[in-house]
Amino acid sequence: FVPLKNIAAPNSNFLRSVVEACNMTKKYTVFETEMMQTLVEHKWNSYVEKMFFYHLKLDLAMVFFLTVDALTYKTVTNSDNHLAIKIVGHVPSII
Prior knowledge:
The chain is mostly helical. It has helices spanning 14-25, 34-71, and strands spanning 85-88, 91-94. It has a two-stranded antiparallel sheet with strand order 1-2. Strand 1 and strand 2 (91-94) form a beta hairpin. The longest helix has 38 residues, at 34-71.
């Protein structure tokens, strides 16, 4: 028995169940059907695309700021050659 009610809902586990079944049988031909292609495209357009690009923007911002921090990093030690704290802009870094 496969419940088909609300298979396109945001919290539906239908696609997950299909993928798990495909992984167990090692047969993925179900994704060649028009119904599955339509379902995957609908899920992408309705929910996943927005989340994907939101997280992509966050990841790119993190890479940018870490790159800026790495490029402006300078070794600073105190007179005893112990670890010191350097502040670049508003980002404290332990060095």
